[in-house]
Design goal:
Blueprint lengths: L3 E8 L5 H11 L3 E8 L2 E7 L6 H9 L4 E7 L3 H15 L3 E6 L4 E4 L1 H7 L3 H4 L4 H4 L5 H8 L3 E9 L4 E12 L5 E10 H11 L15 H15 L4 E4 L6 H10 L8 E5 L5 H9 L17 H4 L4 E5 L6 H13 L1 E3 L6 E3 L3 E6 L3 H6 L5 H7 L2 E4 L10 H16 L5 E2 L1 H9 L5 H15 L4 E2 L11 H4 L14 H18 L4 H8 L3 H11 L3 H10 L1
Parallel strand pairs: 10-15, 10-16, 11-12, 12-15, 17-18
Antiparallel strand pairs: 1-3, 1-4, 2-3, 5-6, 5-9, 7-8, 8-9, 13-14
Helix pairs in contact: 9-10, 16-18, 20-21, 21-22
């Protein structure tokens, strides 16, 4: 192949101009390699002819009627456009595949090579059905002309083993018929990282787990050691002891800290829904299944940690599926056939007696031993009461900001009352008691009168008389309503207007009017009686 020259001929826009230029090339036996024409422009790529210089050819062209200018160019417009497109395709982090109307691959960028583990030279010019699979969405789009978005694909064949998310668009001719398809691919790992970067959980570390008692120090030491490895952890403890706090702290102290932490409450989700949430499902796996299927939490937590709270509530059917994941490190989507490898560390937690459940046949023994590699027992609050002052003061500081009050401390009498209580609800109950006390406190120090440790004490704390004899006790809602009504009546008796009463109560004028209407307090009747007095 000889040397080529590219140039552009600028002309007046008239019929037959391109033909006149071609006649000149033919006259000098010039081999035309390519030509692109636009109004007033003719781009030519020719093979350099012996005995005819470019300058001479230029002179010949300029002598032609209506030729205005002849100028050399480095490359043809189409070549320039193709190189620009290739540069874009090479630079993008998404895989790009294009096919023509026959399903033959025409474009296959480096990112697609990386995701699919197939070289472009092996793919371009070959049927996409042969290179990937005969049922990929691109081929459906080629038939129907319909676009698709974010379809999850798992390929496991002789050519490739890959897992990616893909979207596709048809290439349409002037009549709107598909003559090709372009698809983008994103590796599932990159998608998961992007999702996680926008949905990172609250960062909890061991420093945020308060408690200086010997039992708590020992538990934290064990948990810190467990965090360094990759073994399954089983956290045991009563409700409200902070099992999830420990799970999050273990994750944040582990090599997986920069990967997802996914928490699932096994008791809060029905079995049928929990299975699809954990393992994901294929499109059409069941009635109501999301188009394109759904990514499961196991896959979302890949390379990270999956926290299974209330593991004792898991059905025996799901126990078998969980055991399989722990044994083989693979999951299978609901309605799917492919097994997908996952690298997930399991931290489980329960307040149930798993040993008793095993004897009753409600919990699998093999799963128990798989989970119980590193057992961690969190002591109840009643067994580490020396931690109560630290916890209480921390909660006062934290919850005062939430409620919007300036509470600085707690009296010694109030602290004594907290220390003498058994805390069946553990730290969660302590948090509720402190928040309730902050709401009831009008001073900067919480007193013993602000502490309501049991619901039946609420009436006394709000200065509501308790019923006598065999009359049943009021429930919490009734007690609060009675206290609210008494407070409104007292404020009205000390005021000359609704607005003044509202100011005394620390609420809006509209709030007092609504409460008066709710409790049947009539403004006219009330104040007319006061005036008589």
């Amino acid at each position: 192949m000889g040397e080529t020259i590219c140039f552009v001929v600028k002309t007046k826009d008239r019929v037959g101009m391109a033909l006149d230029i071609l006649k000149i090339l033919y006259r000098h036996s010039i081999n035309l390699k390519a030509m692109e024409v636009a109004p007033g422009l003719a781009f030519l790529k020719i093979e350099k002819a012996e005995g005819l210089s470019y300058d001479l050819l230029k002179e010949q062209l300029l002598q032609e009627k209506d030729v205005l200018e002849v100028e050399k160019i480095k490359m043809m417009p189409q070549e320039k456009k193709e190189r620009e497109i290739k540069a874009v395709l090479d630079a993008t982090v998404e895989g790009i595949i294009a096919i023509d109307k026959n399903g033959i691959i025409t474009a296959f960028n480096p990112a697609a090579e990386k995701i699919l583990k197939i070289k472009a030279k092996e793919a371009i010019g070959r049927p996409v059905a042969e290179i990937l699979a005969p049922d990929i969405p691109m081929l459906k789009t080629l038939r129907t002309g319909e676009s698709y978005d974010n379809v999850e694909i798992v390929l496991n064949n002789q050519k490739t083993k890959s897992h990616y998310i893909t979207s596709g668009r048809p290439i349409l001719d002037q009549d709107g018929s598909p003559v090709g398809v372009v698809a983008s691919l994103q590796d599932i790992e990159n998608v998961m990282e992007l999702v996680y970067s926008f949905a990172q959980p609250a960062v909890i570390t061991f420093e945020e787990i308060l408690g200086e008692s010997e039992k708590m120090r020992r538990v934290k030491e064990i948990a810190k050691i467990a965090a360094k490895g990759n073994s399954t952890v089983l956290i045991r403890g009563e409700s409200g002891t902070g099992k999830e706090l420990f799970a999050r702290s273990i994750h944040m102290a582990s090599p997986r800290k920069n990967r997802p932490f996914v928490a699932v409450n096994c008791a809060a989700i029905p079995d049928t829904l929990l299975e699809s949430e954990l393992f994901g499902y294929e499109e059409g796996a069941f009635t109501g299944a999301k188009k394109g299927g759904k990514q499961g939490l196991f896959k979302y937590a890949d390379k990270g940690t999956l926290f299974l709270d209330e593991i004792g509530e898991l059905s025996t059917y799901l126990q078998v599926k969980l055991l399989r994941v722990l044994q083989e490190g693979k999951i299978r989507l609901v309605g799917g056939n492919e097994e997908i490898p996952v690298d997930v560390r399991i931290i489980a937690a329960t307040n149930r007696d798993l040993e008793k459940l095993m004897k009753e046949g409600q919990f699998r023994e093999d799963l128990y031993y798989r989970l119980n590699v590193i057992p961690i027992f969190i002591p109840p609050l009643r067994e580490r009461k020396e931690d109560i002052p630290i916890l209480a003061r921390h909660l006062i500081k934290k919850l005062s900001q939430k409620v919007g009050k300036r509470i600085n401390d707690i009296s010694s009498e109030a602290m004594k009352k907290l220390m003498e209580y058994d805390w069946p609800g553990n730290v969660r109950e302590l948090s509720n008691v402190v928040e309730r006390a902050i709401n009831l406190c009008d001073d900067e120090v919480i007193g013993v009168e602000h502490l309501v440790l049991k619901e039946e004490e609420l009436s006394d704390s709000l200065y509501v008389r308790k019923p006598c004899g065999k009359t049943p006790c009021k429930n919490l809602k009734e007690a609060v309503e009675e206290a609210e009504k008494r407070a409104i009546l007292e404020a009205l008796s000390k005021s000359k207007s609704i607005r003044e009463a509202a100011k005394l109560l620390g609420v809006t004028h509209a709030t007092v009017l609504n409460k008066m209407k709710r409790y049947g307090i009539k403004k006219e009747t009330y104040w007319s009686e006061e005036m008589v007095k």
